[in-house]
Write a structure and sequence with these properties.
Layout lengths: L7 H10 L2 E2 L5 H10 L3 H5 L20 E2 H37 L8 H9 L3 H6 L8 H7 L5 H4 L5 H14 L10 H12 L20 H8 L6 H7 L3 H16 L4 H16 L11 H17 L1
Parallel strand pairs: 1-2
Helix pairs in contact: 4-9, 4-10, 4-13, 4-14, 10-13, 13-15, 14-15
Length: 303
């Protein structure tokens, strides 16, 4: 069903009718925020974290939801996306360093593996070389398009394409590497953050996909002091939470200091300072608090 365009005053009215209150932030300040800082559709996404009345005169309205809570969640989410992107870029770089370091230890020429990759993914070569006139890597593509090797092609690959190469390399060679089984979750989280998608807008089921946690990841997380197995099982069913935990796990194990130390300090600040700046907003939202406490326990362990 098509929905009508709403002016900002109509957006405020629509929120009030759905039970969203303006006791903490006034309607006039909320209007300015909607006009200058975000847009209605994006902000409303965070209301999915709140329950609605089911059997009263307020049927269908949100329970204990203030505009201020949505504003705060949207701001926290923006900070989280920035850190995720930073961690993803660092992780990609050091996975490349790791792979090329291991490549130097095996009897491979660096060209054969790329030909095998092209056979496995028939359109990959065309997708990479199709960017020869539009990419900032145009010079590299035009220089090496008939001479791709493992050390030059990684400079023009997307993260997903690199993940395919990484997986192939460690499948072909006898190295103890379980990281290749965790790259898809990182890719999905990275893409969501890069496209500015909301991440913490739906922490309750139903979820977008079914999760089967990696054994090594689950085993290590389950041994964190204070971690309850039942909570671990439940929280890792959430795709966003699972993918974030995977990113943290890989980041800790792959990225060296001082890069790792500096970024993890930023992540700690987000969870220990910024997220609890308005802790009173979430006092009655047990679901949000439980997810926060779960991820914070993991961050405190690694940081």
């Amino acid at each position: 069903m098509k929905r009508p365009k709403l002016t900002i005053p109509q957006q405020i009215k629509d929120m009030k009718e759905s039970g969203i209150a303006f006791n903490v932030i006034s309607e006039s300040n909320a209007s300015r925020f909607l006009e200058n800082n975000t847009y209605y559709f994006k902000l409303k996404a965070y209301e999915k974290n709140y329950d609605k009345y089911r059997d009263t005169a307020k049927l269908g309205q949100y329970i204990n939801l203030e505009f201020a809570y949505l504003k705060d969640l949207s701001t926290i989410d923006a900070h989280l996306r920035k850190i995720i992107l930073k961690m993803s870029v660092d992780l990609e770089h050091f996975l490349k360093v790791k792979m090329l370091s291991d490549f130097n230890k095996v009897d491979e020429d660096g060209y054969g593996i790329i030909q095998e990759l092209f056979r496995n993914i028939p359109d990959l070569k065309d997708r990479i070389e199709g960017k020869s006139n539009t990419s900032t890597c145009s010079f590299l593509i035009n220089s090496y398009k008939d001479d791709w090797a493992i050390w030059n092609i990684i400079e023009v690959m997307s993260f997903g394409q690199f993940a395919d190469l990484y997986t192939l390399f460690y499948t072909r060679n006898e190295f103890d590497d379980s990281y290749r089984n965790l790259l898809l979750p990182v890719r999905m989280l990275r893409n969501a953050a890069a496209h500015n998608n909301c991440l913490i807008n739906r922490l309750c089921p139903p979820f977008s996909r079914e999760i089967t946690p990696n054994y090594d990841l689950k085993h290590e997380i389950s041994n964190i002091p204070g971690m309850l197995f039942k909570a671990l099982e439940k929280k890792l069913k959430n795709p966003t939470v699972h993918d974030l935990v995977v990113l943290i796990y890989l980041y800790v194990h792959v990225v060296p200091n001082p890069t790792k130390e500096k970024t993890l300090e930023e992540l700690k600040y987000l969870f220990n300072e910024r997220m609890v700046k308005h802790r009173e907003y979430y006092a009655k939202n047990q679901e949000l608090r439980s997810y926060y406490e779960f991820v914070k326990l993991i961050i405190d362990f690694y940081c």
